[in-house]
Amino acid sequence: MEFEKIIAERPNKTIYKSGDCTVKVFAEDFSKADILNEALNMARVEETGLSIPKVVEVTKIDGKWAIVYDYIEGTTLAELMDKNPDKVDEYLELFVDLQLEMHSKKAPLLNKLKDKMMRKISETDLDATTRYELHTRLEGMKKHDKVCHGDFNPSNIIITPEGKAYILDWSHATQGNASADAARTYLLFSLQGKVELAEKYMNLFCKKSDTAKQYVQQWLPIVAASQSVKGKPEEKDFLLKWVNVVDYE
After folding, report:
1. DSSP secondary structure letters along 56-91
2. Cα torsion at 72, 200, 241, 248 (round to 10°)?
3. Least C-beta-crowded within 10 Å: which of 7, 55, 72, 201?
4. Which of 72, 59, 44, 69 is nearest to 163 (CA)?
5. What CA–CA distances, in Å, run from 89 to 40, 81, 97, 203?
6. Assign residue 164 a region: left if phi > 0, alpha if psi is -120 to 50, beta otherwise?
7. Which residues share a beta bridge with 61?
8. CA-CA distance, 248 to 231, in Å (whole number)?
């Protein structure tokens, strides 16, 4: 397999273009279970009919696990937003519409969002009182079975030259409550310092999905805690500030 160029580099993975395919090569110490789960997530979401790259194969390259999937030619929505600041509102509309379309789908074999978050909260360094409060709050949230991305942000949306949108990176996909997914997106914008955009996103999501803003906000401490486990040190501090807005009764 010949690599034409590097598309992206992360500390534990490198993504290459190879002909009509994208090849995501993982570091040798990356969890095999997580790699296989990501490929399985993609295959299961593919069956919903959403526009996503299709998995071609899971293989090993020079002793490292790799996922091979369709290469999508285009520009990320994040790049378009940066290049055309006057069109940000238009792009945000498209972004939320894509998320709502995703939430309208079901993939019964995906891992459950609630189970994943329960486990993550238990893995945090938070004190027992805070963990108990978060577990209790999470348990009280409504159980849904909508397809949730878990990392839905403009850099994971590619727009082709023809104007078709594809959703990338399904490593965090679960089935569960759409408002938890929205809370995660809100936190992602906030982590990037895009506070105004985060608020615009939240208002637009709630308007288009007819969801009370207060309900999405109830998810913020839960999502922040669960995401803090593997976060970068600087992100962890930021996320834990959100956890601390838990209002004890």
Report:
1. EEEEEETTEEEEEEE---SEEHHHHHHH-GGGHHHH
2. -120
3. 7
4. 72
5. 34, 9, 12, 12
6. beta
7. 64
8. 25
* Positions of the chain with pLDDT lower than 50, given as ranges: 248-249
CA angle 125, 37, 159 (to 5 degrees): 100
Helix axes 195-209 and 88-103, enclosed angle (nearest 10): 50
What percentage of the chain has pLDDT greater than the value 90?
A: 90
The predicted pLDDT at position 1 comes to 79
Q: Which residues contact 151 (CB under 8 A, 6 or more apart)?
A: 169, 171, 172, 184, 188
Residue type, 124: T
pLDDT digits (tens, 9 = 90+) for 46-73: 999 999 999 999 999 999 999 999 999 9
Q: How many residues are given for the chain?
A: 249
What is the DSSP secondary structure assignment for residue 60, as one 8-state letter? E
Q: How many CA atoms lie within 13 A of 80 on its CB side?
A: 23
